[in-house]
Please model this.
Amino acid sequence: MKTDNSHNTWLLEQLKDTDFAANFLNAASEDEDPATYLLALRKIVDARGGIAIVSEKTALSRETLYRTLSKRGNPTIKTLSTILKATGLKIAVAAS
Model:
């Protein structure tokens, strides 16, 4: 499947905005597949400097970040919270 580079470029630019990124993640959380949320978070990481920068901010290895933010990732709440904090976001709970 070919990726539309102009859409990807646009999305990465939009994800630099904290409110847009938060809404993007909240929308991803509505999907029943947890991989959707992790892939959305990976897009935010990419938009905010990439794996190398977030690795430095979190003291998590690049390998850990790649594995955590993959379709098969299964992060702990601590790891997830650390990644979100490094991207300027945090976990919140809302009534459904």
